[in-house]
Amino acid sequence: MKIVVVGTGYVGLVTGTCFAEVGIDVICVDIDAEKINNLNNGILPIFEPGLETLVIKNISNGRLKFSTSLKQSISDAGVAFIAVGTPPGENGSADLQYVLAVASEIGQYMNNYSVIVTKSTVPVGTAQKVQMAIQKELENRNLNISFDVASNPEFLKEGAAIDDFLKPDRIVVGISSKQAEEVMRKLYKPFLLNGHPIIFMDVPSAEMTKYAANSMLATKISFMNDIANLCEIMGADVNMVRKGIGSDARIGNKFIYPGIGYGGSCFPKDVKALIKTAAENGYSMKILQAVEAVNEYQKTVLFNKLNNRFQGNLEGKTIAMWGLSFKPNTDDMREAPSLVLVDSILKAGGNVQAFDPVAMKEARHIIGDKIVYCKNEYDTLINADALMIVTEWTDFRSPNFDKIKTLLNNAIVFDGRNIFDGKEMNELGFEYYGIGTRND
Could you tell me if 58 and 17 are in contact, meaning their C-beta atoms sit under 8 angstroms apart? Predict the structure, then answer.
């Protein structure tokens, strides 16, 4: 079977590469000629552990190709994935212009039965719009080619996307015909050999599943951040509370770590989109509205701790910042809490010296030269008045604390991810501020 993946962003590139890895012939298509040229030379537009190795390997064995021509690529494809961006509009709704543009182009060039699969995160009802766009183009060509539109939402975690795709918790596919189900079952057969479940359902339910999953995870994060804030007020320790509730099998221990808010390409966008979808249909998602509000507030918590510690006077103060990406093992800066922190510190008259293991290039692109970018985490500490832990990279978890104290002007640490133990930090001579702990 030959498949086409339209879009070589995070989802499209991982999808195409992993299908090629199990022996399927894949062409990834993108309108960005420079990106395609780079990919053909093994140069990736994103950082994702293990992805570069698989891309180069599958280019070499001829199973993975990159092209700017959908016309040439779609002609004999059995499955075409639409994996282009759906950025949020000004009102929070998902912008479907790129998805529908691809659908129209598929209708202009397809010549045989295909299953057109929306891999992009799209609102309920998008598959129907995709079908109409394709059908319109076929009618313009006076052709009667049968096709199916399916929904196959992705559940990839940035930083662990390869394992998530090759060893999925579940594969969700929304279909509207038996033929489409047979095609998709055959396509995913290599991933089912180890017992990973494939769940077939109607298309609207599959579209909703993606939003519901991300919104639930975002809810758990905001809930724990809300609890953490209350713990500080009441004198409790959220780390103990987290262990206490995480041992309950009904709750579980994932996504209950307090911090400084979620970011990235999925949670903020998908929560907004689901709230907007509900509003357009006369329903108010009150829980998700609160989730979003808590998350926006949480991004200010670490700055407020910093500002209070220096009595509202950050003028001329230099803050060392460890981590810039929204989470470890990615260079993704979209909606990253670091952006809010940097902006707040600069507006207060302070300076920032930052280091991130992989996101420095992307940070320069977004922040520019407003901050100092250092070659390692210790260089950020030179003449700095305090240290902020913003991203919980493993590189930062067991540092040389004596060296930190020597380089900092003041032995003050603001730990936005609770990677250090407050009591131990106090014993080491640090003034320590965590999230939801008694050790401030």
Answer: yes
